[in-house]
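Dear support,

Our group has been running a series of protein-ligand predictions, and this particular one with NDP is the one our PI (initials K.S.) wants archived with full inputs and outputs. We had some confusion internally about which version of the output was final, so please treat the block below as the authoritative record. The input we submitted was:
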Amino acid sequence: MKNRQLYFSYRPDGTPTPDVFGERLVDVGAPGEGELLCRNLTVSVDPYLRLKMHDRRSYTPPLQIGEAIPGRAVAEVLESRAPGFSAGDHVMIYGGWQEYAVVSAKAAQKVDLATASAGAWLGPLGMTGMTAYAGLMHIGKPKAGETLVVSGAAGAVGGIVGQIGKILGCRVIGIAGGEEKCRSVTEHLGFNACLNYREPHLATRLENVCGGGADIYFDNVGGEISRAVASTFNNFGRFIVCGLVSQYSGQQPAEPTAFDEFMRLILTRKLTVGGFIVTDIEHHYPEFEETMAGWLKSGQVVHREHVRQGFDEIVPAFLGMLSGENTGKSIVHIA
Ligand code: NDP
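Confirmed final output from the archive:
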């Protein structure tokens, strides 16, 4: 059996282009003891892949030229050599950007597509939701009445963060790229307000709409936007550093003194700054899964997804997500 597979073709400088990815046909290996042969049904496209294209130390090793592109997927088990899994089961795996994958059963999670769609498993019920939930709850420690500011508000993680904030009684202010996205964030996700960062004077507009400043900032983007938000922090604010997507393509800092200015804010406003990577906090998964499943069932959290169809759409979906085409979780159905 042959497998269409996307691989890393060269290290981009700046915004990636389609030729960063190559495609090849490879043999599908047979599963060994404890492994599953799976057919990927729906793959996730995520910003961290751009980070992995840099040849530098990070929380995950850099991609090597020629390496198959990794990524999460919802898949169907075709053959199982592991107890507890059978052909026909649906699983969430690190299946990569390819049609078939052989994976260790230990890293596979069974999912029920009758109770939630593949997009929901890759979104609010998966790594995306876990990132939003654990980052906000365990680093942000939100209290009712506080002001929570969320960048990347129309995206997968940001949209869920704001909805959880509302459930907990926070006043939630989103930041997103464009008026239409901002409108959808307030109308469909229930944020109190959402500001378009493409318009000038973000810090001033934020202060006006916050009626004071931010108590918690859940940062998905970094860069200029985060500098604007940081300047509005209330005393004892919590800065949750989740992602820096505005910087992933190697943008140059606009202002060399920004770091010192930020250190001054940490001190004078007594801020807590916490970075996290979702894979380090997996012990919160059971608590998260139960809570999030309940919120989705009750309609308190709404799942939104941006869907493309077909294997050829994986790369366009990834590049489109980096440039902001998506509202909600970006996924591609390939089978
Ligand atoms: P999104 O669904 O939010 O998609 C990415 C979004 O980034 C785009 O839709 C776009 O929205 C926005 N964006 C792109 N370029 C810029 C820019 N220059 N300035 C501001 N916004 C920009 O992706 P995810 O929800 O999957 O991920 C959000 C963040 O969370 C990422 O930084 C990601 O790396 C991080 N993350 C961190 C994890 C962790 O463990 N710490 C785990 C998972 C994700 P717009 O139109 O509004 O510009």
